[in-house]
Amino acid sequence: MRNILLACGVGASSGFIAQKMRKAAEKKGLEVEIRAVSDTEILENIEGVGVLLIGPHLKHKFEEIQEEVSGYKVKAAIIDRKYYATLDGEAVLKTALDMMGE
């Protein structure tokens, strides 16, 4: 199963996006686990994750986060600001699937 983790400052915005991503995945018939956490909860939730997507407002922490998760074979990226601002779960899901090579 594909496992995607989203992270933002508190987990609220990423929670809304995760919910929309789950609906988009369900519509496409995809089996995907999508969770949202705050940036301080990433390490305790990273096990088994294939893709980690970070809210654009955490861009200044991205290198630090990448270092912290480097031993977990997870692909990490910053969510496109446009998709984040519009809560475009379908576009964010496509980004994650593309990162997984699907």
Please provide a written account of the structure:
The chain has helices at 12-28, 42-45, 62-69, 81-85, 89-99, and strands at residues 2-8, 32-38, 51-54, 75-78. The chain is globular and about 35 Å long. The mean pLDDT is 93. It has 102 residues and is α/β, with parallel strands linked by helices. Strands 2-1-3-4 form a 4-stranded parallel sheet, covered by helices on one side. Helix 1 links the parallel strand 1 (2-8) and strand 2 (32-38). The two termini are 13 Å apart. It is built from 5 helices and 4 strands.
Strand and helix map with partners:
Blueprint: E1 2-8, H1 12-28, E2 32-38, H2 42-45, E3 51-54, H3 62-69, E4 75-78, H4 81-85, H5 89-99
Parallel strand pairs: 1-2, 1-3, 3-4
Helix pairs in contact: 1-5
